[in-house]
Amino acid sequence: MTCIVVVGGFFGDEGKGKIVAHIAHRDKPAIISRGGVGPNAGHTVTVGDKAYGVRMVPSGFVYPGARLFIGTGVLVDPRVFLHEVELLGVGGRTFVDGRCGIIEESHIQRDKKDEHLAKTIGSTGTGCGPANADRVLRIARQAKDVPELKDFLIDVPLEINRALKAEECVILEGSQGFGISLFFGTYPYVTSKDTSASQIAADNGVGPTNIDDVMVVFKAYPTRVGEGPFSTEMSMETSKEKGIEEFGTVTHRPRRIGKWDSKLAQYSVMVNGATQAAITGIDRVDKGCYGATRYDQLSRTAREFVDMVEEDIQIPVTLISTGPDVSHIIDLRDEV
Ligand code: IMP
Ligand code: MG
What integer is the mean pLDDT of 144-149? Predict the structure, then answer.
């Protein structure tokens, strides 16, 4: 495995961050590079007793051996970026492509005050939609125009393609989920860009023939924040009864929770060209599975769930996340 793209299969918050962190520790990539929209993403990575909510820096930062990039297609909020670099102590190995679009304070104000974006769509209010609009209108600034980012600039496509040529491992980290893709999702209740694997590759300047694997991440119980259709949604009472309620990393809004969505999962695997799948939150299907690290530790209920998923999507489930910590995972990749 040389170049792997990791994307979310449902409506975001599938736990991609944790999956990327695990793959990074095991596969030791030279580079982990972010694709996707921008700081509207919130990835929670838990290591030991510390939980990090990252929005700009790739969630693979927990693996210290990799250089961390933000791909050309991604929007950068310099304040969020600089704050995270400082907080996580990743200066010296974290870089931004000079052509990344810049989010200004005015974009954030527009995102928060615009009736359509804030109320109807339920945007994250992080300025991404207005900044992408300005980028398309060709009036946005680029990272190379921001003096504070001067020391972080790099040609991301060049560095990644060089690493791939040298047979090094590269992880391209998606953000958001398939269901909120601007192209394939529940328009207009979507984010401001495509979120599928092809887009994540394009964001980083990696051509389709250079991708070896696409790992799509599904939550056992999908969630959605913000507005928009959610066909398998359950009531808040039901999710409370099951003890599976959740809150957003960026917005702290309660997440809407649903049951496994076969149809969306199948469509998502198809468009993403997924070769493998990860399931997160299997400990919500059966609490007894919490923290399991081997397949034979899974209960019958959990195994039946995995079988059902594989039957649905027709690709192997190779990673099963059993709890929030990076170590809470079953890795079956060597067995396929
Ligand atoms: P925007 O991307 O902030 O414009 O928000 C558009 C829609 O996408 C809203 O419903 C957001 O809640 C949703 N969204 C954007 N980014 C994420 C994410 O990282 N996770 C989950 N939902 C997201
Ligand atoms: Mg999130």
Answer: 98
* Helix (H/G/I), strand (E/B), else coil: 42: coil
Residue 80: which of 34, 116, 115, 47 has the closest Cα?
A: 34
Domain count, the chain: 1
Q: What is the mean pLDDT of residues 98-127?
A: 97
**Whole-angstrom Cα distance, residue 45 to residue 17?**
6
Give the start-end residues of each E strand in the chain.
3-8, 31-34, 43-47, 50-54, 67-70, 75-76, 94-97, 101-102, 153-154, 170-177, 213-219, 223-224, 256-257, 276-280, 317-321, 329-331
Q: Which helix (H) or strand (E) holds 128?
A: helix 128-136
User: Is 191 in contact with 133 (CB distance < 8 Å)?
Assistant: no
pLDDT in tens, 39-67: 999 888 887 888 888 999 999 999 999 99
**Maximal CA-CA distance, the chain:** 57
Domain of residue 255 covers 3-335
Q: What's the CA-to-centroid distance between 156 and ligand 1, angstroms?
A: 25
Give residue-wise pLDDT tens across range 158-175: 999 999 999 999 999 999
């702290």: which residue's tokens?
A: 252
Beta bridge partners of 276: 215
Q: Is 27 a catalytic residue?
A: no
Nearest ligand 1 atom, CA 251? 12
Q: Stretch 247-275: mean pLDDT, rounded?
A: 94
Number of CB atoms found within 10 A of residue 278's CB:
28
Question: What's the gap in Å between 57 CA and the centre of ligand 1?
Answer: 17
The enclosing domain of 51 has a CATH number of 3.40.440.10
